[in-house]
């Protein structure tokens, strides 16, 4: 099978030029002006942007959480991702405390294998670290191609590791050539504030927000970053939301620690005023919560200053019925919001179209940097000879409106209902196959491949 994409404006993190792309099988074979190949399929990309398939390194599909499961499966979630221009996602395997990493991996593989429509990989979330688990780290890196290890500094009793475990884990992961990532919020402080609010009968979604003030994130981010400095382990803070946490990253960078950070699309464009309405605010109950306008400004600046390398989603959808589990108590609202399908179009619209970030920065933070940080570059994350032909053809002039009535995520509301976006994902290729065209998905479940990742070296 061969495809020739003609006359698109090809944007990578480094280049911007109008040219053709020739693809054979799963791979990009040539890039240049007026390419002369006899291709099975020719796609005219005149007046369109052509950029690498998006990589969302933070999603939760079919995740058991807070007594229920996130509502997108590997099938519905990765398909929705493709509609939105994201060709690869990285999900999180969650170790059950007291059990092995191997068993957790088998559990996640059973949900994803043969089900995913788009490509996927796993981070391993270590929730209970001891000598037995230490031996499994090497195995994950060397044999399974899982080179990043997630930790939770909150959710005590189910997911949280203490500082001793974190410190020990970082030393081991450093030795094995991996990366440690963290949900960096202070779980003890949050648990105390949650308990206080509940005791006072303060039970609406607003108190979810007020139980996780900025200091809880700034403190944990700083603690994690300092441990990264001491152990020398490459570290990555997931879903960074606020100025205080960003300052912790800035300080770590000033000392040349390898501390990377991700924010998510919602923290750039939504703010905490959404919690000031009765139960409706449950749509945006996520952890960490939405922040203030001043934090949005800090995050956009953080992207442009290179302090934040990735814009992900933390896609973790729940049906409205599931959100209602917390109708009378914010602490029982399943945490998470749907965005896997909307990330690229929102980032283009609110970032590039409104002049906050450049096109090359857009490609960096939506694709290239995640591929580099997580050991998939240059197979993924760029348009280059030899790379997987994961390609988005995007019309920067086709305005449309986001809505639950038209999205493909398995969730019955949108966090962005009625939002106008400035451009549209038109055609998507995954490993040389047209998977999305003209608002249709052309592939079935099982099309997605598990991507083994390389060790982390000389990242970013
Ligand atoms: N935060 C969420 O909002 N959902 C899933 C897990 C998390 O940390
Ligand atoms: Zn988290
Ligand atoms: Zn998450
Ligand atoms: Zn759209």
Automatic annotation (TrEMBL):
InterPro entries: Amidohydro-rel, Hydantoinase/dihydroPyrase, Metal-dep_hydrolase_composite, Metal_Hydrolase, Metallo-dep_Hydrolases_sf. Residues 49-435 form the Amidohydrolase-related domain. GO terms for cellular component: cytosol. The keyword Hydrolase applies. It comes from the Bacteria. The keyword Lipid biosynthesis does not apply. One of its GO terms (molecular function) is hydrolase activity, acting on carbon-nitrogen (but not peptide) bonds, in cyclic amides. Belongs to the metallo-dependent hydrolases superfamily. Hydantoinase/dihydropyrimidinase family. PANTHER family: COLLAPSIN RESPONSE MEDIATOR PROTEIN (PTHR11647:SF1), HYDRANTOINASE/DIHYDROPYRIMIDINASE FAMILY MEMBER (PTHR11647). NCBIfam families: D-hydantoinase (TIGR02033). This is Dihydropyrimidinase.
């Amino acid at each position: 099978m061969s495809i020739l994409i003609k006359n698109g404006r090809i944007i990578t993190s480094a280049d911007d030029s109008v040219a053709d792309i020739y693809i054979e099988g799963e791979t990009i074979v040539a890039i240049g002006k007026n390419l002369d190949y006899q291709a099975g399929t020719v796609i005219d990309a005149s007046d369109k942007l052509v950029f690498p398939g998006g990589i969302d390194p933070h999603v939760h599909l079919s995740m058991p959480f807070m007594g229920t499961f996130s509502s997108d499966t590997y099938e519905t979630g990765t398909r929705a991702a493709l509609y939105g221009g994201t060709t690869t996602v990285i999900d999180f395997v969650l170790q059950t405390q007291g059990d092995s990493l191997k068993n957790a991996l088998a559990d996640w593989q059973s949900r994803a294998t043969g089900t995913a429509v788009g490509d996927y990989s796993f981070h391993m979330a270590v929730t209970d670290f001891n000598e037995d688990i230490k031996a499994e780290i090497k195995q994950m890196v060397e044999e399974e191609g899982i080179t990043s290890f997630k930790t939770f500094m909150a959710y005590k009793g189910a997911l949280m590791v203490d500082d001793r475990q974190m410190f020990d884990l970082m030393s081991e992961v450093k030795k094995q050539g991996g990366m440690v990532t963290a949900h960096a919020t202070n779980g003890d402080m949050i648990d105390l504030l949650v308990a206080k609010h509940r005791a006072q009968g303060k039970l609406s979604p607003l108190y979810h927000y007020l139980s996780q003030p900025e200091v809880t994130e700034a403190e944990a981010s700083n603690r994690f970053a300092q441990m990264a400095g001491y152990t020398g382990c490459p570290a990555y803070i997931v879903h960074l939301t606020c100025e205080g946490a960003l300052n912790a990253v800035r300080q770590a960078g000033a000392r040349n620690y390898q501390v990377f950070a991700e924010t998510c699309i919602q923290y750039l464009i939504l703010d905490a005023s959404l919690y000031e309405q009765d139960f409706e605010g449950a749509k945006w109950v996520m952890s960490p919560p939405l922040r203030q306008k001043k934090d949005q400004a800090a995050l956009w600046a953080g992207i442009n200053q290179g302090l934040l390398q990735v814009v992900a989603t933390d896609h973790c959808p729940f049906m409205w019925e599931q959100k209602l589990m917390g109708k009378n108590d914010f602490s029982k609202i399943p945490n998470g919001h749907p965005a896997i399908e909307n990330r690229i179009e929102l980032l283009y619209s609110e970032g590039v179209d409104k002049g906050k970030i450049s096109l090359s920065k857009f490609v960096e933070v939506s694709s290239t940097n995640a591929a580099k940080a997580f050991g998939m570059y240059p197979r993924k994350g760029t348009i280059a000879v030899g790379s997987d032909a994961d390609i988005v053809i995007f019309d920067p002039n086709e305005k449309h409106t986001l809505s639950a009535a038209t999205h493909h995520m398995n969730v019955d509301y949108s966090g962005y209902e009625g939002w106008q976006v400035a451009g549209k994902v038109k055609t998507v290729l995954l490993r040389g196959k047209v998977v999305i065209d003209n608002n249709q998905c052309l592939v079935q479940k099982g099309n997605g491949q598990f991507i083994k990742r390389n060790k982390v070296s000389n990242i970013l």
